[in-house]
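Morning F.,

Quick status update on the modeling queue. The single chain you submitted on Monday has been processed. Sequence for confirmation:
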Amino acid sequence: MTTQILINLLIAITWMLLNENWDVVSFTVGYVIGFAIISSMRRFFPVPFYGKKAIAVIKLLLLFIIELFKSSITVLKEIMRPKIKIKPGIFRTTTVLESDLEISLLVALITLTPGSVVMEIDQKAQVLFIHAMDADDFKNNIMKTKKRFEKAIIEVMR
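Structure tokens below.
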């Protein structure tokens, strides 16, 4: 995969040299052309095309931004009520992720979304203990979010 990225960078730099323009636009055009060339020649590489991983990373980033926005709106609605009617709670959930890096990424993404904090991790049993601002409402939402994050992390890491 790194050879594909290096070849793509070499094509982009060559494109800049041929056009005699040393700017970001020329480099970007060269990089897109290199991406298309490598994509069309992907069957000659022994490793999978790196564009799939790049797209998976972008999907994970967009998923995080969407979940961050949705949970921020939910937390904002909760704290703007005249009387706060939340029932904080802790619940236990398991994860399908296996490696330490995958679990750490999941924990970071869950913790960065407002209204939930991962308190403890049992990596041997793949169990997370999550504190939610409103356990009744958030448990379903956090579980859905966790499953989406797990699917996206598996797509990126494996």
